[in-house]
Amino acid sequence: MKGTAVCGAAFAFCMVAAILGSPHPECDYLTQFEREKRKCEKQSLEYGNLTKQGCNQTWDTIVCWPEANTGETVSISCPSYLSHLLKSQGIIYRNCTVNGWSNPYPPYYVACVAKDDIADEEGSYFATMKTIYSIGYGTSIVSLTIAVAILLTFRRLHCARNYIHVQLFITFILKSVSVFIKDAILFSSEDTDHCSFSTVACKVSMVFCNYCVMTNFFWLLVEALYLNSLLLSSFHQDRKFFWWFVLLGWGFPKFFIVVWIISRLYFEDTDCWDINETSEYWWIIKGPIVTSIAVNFILFLNIIRILIQKLDPRLIQFNNSSQYRRLAKSTLLLIPLFGTHYMVFNFLPQHVSESARLFMELCLGSFQGFLVAVLYCFLNQEVQSEIQRKWIGWQVNSYGIVPVVAKDSQADTPF
Fold first, then answer.
1. What pLDDT score was predicted for residue 406?
2. At residue 108, does pLDDT exceed 70?
3. Residue 302: what pLDDT?
4. What is the 3-state secondary structure (H, E, C) of the chain?
5. Whole-number percent of the chain with pLDDT over 70
6. How far apart are CA 86 and CA 167, in angstroms?
């Protein structure tokens, strides 16, 4: 169960159940097992035994054997829900005798040979991933908290642009915190059945996690909209525009989360609300996220198009050439941070490149907040200049010393 615990902890995602939307293979196996068992038992009750002399349809704790006539031999292949656990799949036989079903032959463990040390391999793999994403989310929380403090402390940095950045930073912080909360609630004990665990705290943690993930994607969308507005020179410094962005970033996700909660409570109140592979209600959350990713990608293509036009040597003016070049460099640096990789993985079949999906979301994705803090705040020339100004003022007031000021950062982000 350690593999399940680790994978589910980071979202088997909480969004990667938002993006992947599927359980760990171990939980997937249990879900399919229960589904096959219920189907077999339901058919047995509905149709009964249609053969007057013979063997009834029966569930033998592993597969469903169909009804058969006396003297008939029935063959069944190894169950499909065990396929990822097996290194070879054979055929199992049972005879229908006057005394009922015979024992299966060859035995299941002979016909369906399991992979060696699969539990240890998966446990080690997910333990490594857990260590990486724990470091990543922890680093992101610290760096983003410092960035928020800087942007809110210095008055000269107070503007609509930086207020938007602060909202984005907060969503990354909340997303990271929600993962740790989910880990603490769901996986505090190794004895817990993580695939069927269901408590109020568990469901609340999933709601909080999903909301944090949705707000993160929507504020990334806000950033893309704002960048487009800057490049088109159509954005006016008016507070009402900022509040529209606040409504989009915080209000829209809240609406969809409330609808999803009501749907799960009344129509699909099962487990911890974290297994969504076959749930039609999952699209209440996944649909808006997929849409935001697609719109974000289109907006960034538009940004590149605008920058190429504005950087045309025949059209560019000398007095703003440096500004556009800096903006072009900064924007291109930020493109990978705005969900571009999701365009690749989000539209592939669910079980294609699952390892790559998990690594991208849990490992690389956990450091996304740290990278955003670095590029939006720590390498921003305006922020560096303000910190240097305060540092010089403190040095002069305290010691009467005027320190040497470093040159502007070459990785400046003018937005």
1. 47
2. yes
3. 83
4. CHHHHHHHHHCCCCCHHHHHCCCCHHHHHHHHHHHHHHHHHHHHHHHCCCCCCEECCEECCCCEECCEECCCEEEEECCHHHHHHEEEECEEEEEEECCEECCCECCHHHHEEECCCHHHHHHHHHHHHHHHHHHHHHHHHHHHHHHHHHHHHCHHHCCHHHHHHHHHHHHHHHHHHHHHHHHHHHCCCCCCCCCCCCCHHHHHHHHHHHHHHHHHHHHHHHHHHHHHHHHHCCCCCCHHHHHHHHHHHHHHHHHHHHHHHHHHHHHCCCCCCCCCCCCHHHHHHHHHHHHHHHHHHHHHHHHHHHHHHHCCCCCCCHHHHHHHHHHHHHHHHHHHHHCHHHHHHCCCCCCCCHHHHHHHHHHHHHHHHHHHHHHHHHCCHHHHHHHHHHHHHHHHHHHCCCCCCCCCCCCCCCC
5. 63
6. 47
275-284 pLDDT, tens per residue? 666 678 888 8
Q: Count of alpha carbons within 13 Å of 339, Cβ hemisphere only?
A: 28
Beta carbons of 1 and 26 less than 8 angstroms apart: yes
pLDDT exceeds 80 at position 123: no
pLDDT at 122 (0 to 100): 60
Which token pair is 170?
């907060």
Written as six digits, the tokens of 406 are 């470093």
CB under 8 Å to 383, separation ≥6 — which residues?
Answer: 150, 151, 154, 157, 377
Q: How confident is the model at residue 288 (pLDDT cuts 50, 70, 90)?
A: very high
Tokens of 317: 């003016």
For the whole prediction, is pTM greater than 0.85? no
| Displacement of CA 132 from its chain's centroid (Å) | 15
